Amino acid sequence: MASSRRPLVQFKAGRCVREGSTNKVVPDSTKGLVYMEEEEGLMHFYWKNRTSNSVEDDLILFPGDAELKMVPECTTGRVVVLQFKSSSQKLFFWLQDASTSKDQTILQQVNALINQGQDDPGQYMDEDISME
Prior knowledge:
single chain; 8 strands
């Protein structure tokens, strides 16, 4: 369950769903928020419905097991994929902030948090990108 402490990183993002059995993903129109917190030594990746204010996804990410990256094939919006290295699981999100100015910072901060213990996550933590 998500706690009341301040997230390590957060950004507005909706979920994308696979269209049938194709490789095409389409955005779910629900307003969402992705955020990460460390709880009892484990890194949690949350997706919260901003309309109902309920956490719908709570994933535990192990160091180096996933990567958040842009989907260059998407030309109609800004889609990112959380791709797991230990499985074929991929979760797609569309960035809901109108500005693109923080996109690269979001990717860097999320990946630094995922890789805590492998790299120095502090190298990307200088800028606060909380978007509410």
